[in-house]
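Hello again, I could really use a second opinion on something today. I owe you a coffee for this, so here goes:
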Amino acid sequence: MPNEKLMTNTIDASELSFNDFKSIVINDYKIAFESRQASVLGRREVLTGKAKFGIFGDGKEVPQVAMAKAFKNGDWRSGYYRDQTFAFATGISTIKEFFAQLYANPTDGADPFSGGRQMNCHFATKSINEDGSWNDLTQIKNCSSDISPTGGQMARLVGLAYASKLFRQNKELDYLKHFSVNGNEVAFGTIGNASTSEGVFFEAINAAGVLQIPMAISIWDDAYGISVPAKYQTTKEDISEVLKGFQREPDQPGYEIYKVKGWDYPALCEVYEKAINVCRDEHVPVLIHVTELTQPQGHSTSGSHERYKSKDRLAWETEHDCILKMRAWMLDSAVATEEEIAEIEKEAKIFVRNAQKEAWNEFLDSIKPEQKQVIDLIGGVAKHQPELARIAANLASTADAQRREVFTAIRKAIRLSASFNSPERDELLTWYKQQAKFNHDRYNSKLHTDGKESPDMIAVVNAAYDEQSKMVDGREVLNACFNENFARDPRLVAFGEDLGNIGDVNQGFAGLQAKYGELRITDTGIREMTIMGQGIGLAMRGLKPIAEIQYLDYLIFALNVLSDDLASLSYRTKGIQKAPVIVRTRGHRLEGIWHSGSPISMILGALRGMHLCVPRNMTQAAGMYNTLFRADEPAVVIECLNGYRLKEKLPINVGDFTVPLGKAEVLEEGTDITVVSYGSSLRIVQEAAEELSLLGISVEIIDPQTLLPFDTTQVCVNSLAKTNKLLVVDEDVPGGASAYILQKVLEEQKGYFHLDGQPKTLSAKAHRPPFGSDGDYFSKPSVDDVIETIYQMMHDANPTKYPAFF
């Protein structure tokens, strides 16, 4: 059957009979050959138009079979889109599932990795159930969801391996039996030789060497990066030569580095067994540089490699094809005869072809009922409007119609029949509307986990105070919050630049490393991408990481990892994986171009799928942390950089009170104008409101508290219904986060209909803020700016009552 899984087995020459050895080798060859046929047929399916695009693992089959032999239950893979043979050999994927993903079949179960949302060779295993609860990750071979950026998997790989170190060394985690067995799990990474030129690769290699974690990185070296040869990619044209300085010595920790030819089956099996044993047992990172690989079909279906490879290179690739080399070795070693191998190849071609046909037919069969229903429904309306019959006929004549063609037809029929009411049209509309929820589930659902530990499900507990509650620095509120939660939940870990020994640059973690130890509160090097990857990997393995970025401006260094990987994780796996990372940072006002930025619009655009918390003070921040510590969805929390030493009252329940996400708060009630702002800017608005009250202007001030999600109870529009005027005050660039807030309030909340004047935004200037207090004053909204802007809006509405200032 096409769903059959052929998995590889470990070769132990000391215990196997020759027949057992022969059976394993033949099975491995069968896996490799089937995978090659899947690549060949997959490319054909793209070129004939059945699939949009294809990228395959041809030429990498034999080393991936060898790697799969060392991959055990509980282990993790973080790879890239050449690893289909590994997926077949480990049982992570069947060939039929591989083709279902190539066709983007969104039917439940067809593409179990992404629900039809990712292109082929993007694998993932089911870490969580529909309600968000965890599976037993020690009983399965785990695959973290692939992403297309070819080095992007490296950041997450560090965290997946680092989790094993924490599980082995922190005995407080022993109760987490579903996540680890004494930290014995290895994190396997794969990357192409060209992508080792990327910064995230070097950052991850260095981080793993420093951390000494069980990370095994395989480099598939076929000497090219699309059309660019190694001489333009890598110094010395050899990445393992470049990395020799990482080789460990008796008195110096580092890597074990191995180099092996990608067509040498017995050597590959031996190297992988040896390397992974070292990695697993000693918790030492290993690097396996697999050289002399080929790419028989070129980079992808977008072009032919004959355009850029010489005749000599093409001839060499034909001769050194790993499958042909394995075939020759099997014959030379008398493992199999020519007749046996030919029969294996014949059966493999039939098997793969049948799997492809079955996947394609199931994809079409999932759409055909909808196609027929739409043809019949449009036909019914055509009784009253004969011109619609052509739409139905065109759809009926489309033999392999996809859902796009079906819905294009029905939407056109709905538009053209708008002036002709009939029972048949009502039936057409009813069917179309009913389908909306199915299509939302197919293509738009699971941006967030939305499980039983969603932030929305966390009980709201108000901050409590008593007569003994004292005024303290804001940083002390945070410190007390972190202390209470680290005592409560041993899964919590925190790491970042200067976070451990000195307790972070603003003392939120002061004294906590000494109390909870270096395994839980840890300093890192300056490496923002892998700080984020460290968080993602730990969170995917059941821990609760706080990954700190020292200043908000520095988040840009990690934005690729957050956007490509973390923010899209729930969506791109259709909810079968999660990573509840809390990204802690601080921003808004301080000094100069790189320490006072508020690139909120950049974050809003890049991080849909994460929550974005913008607390106005440290008490609100603590409440948000308390919510997030109990929830299971990722978030960024931006603390106010100029608020750590401002006095706040310390709640008696500092580790327990919660601030709900998405719930805006009216800070001051007013009747004349609604002002929406967040973070540090709110103090400026509040100060301005005091002077404006002396001028007879009553300002209603709203703090959305989180921008993702934004004001889910529509506090803003309810305020606007009363005041009819709106000002958004924001430290981002013009048209940045302020435009986002306007869209939410005016369009989504329908606040436009309550306006009696033009809505305004007051933002920072288009450049980054210059250094110093004067630079801040002249480049970001000041109290004077807020007063004058609001007064001018009131003047525009009633010039007699509010005569012009200027």
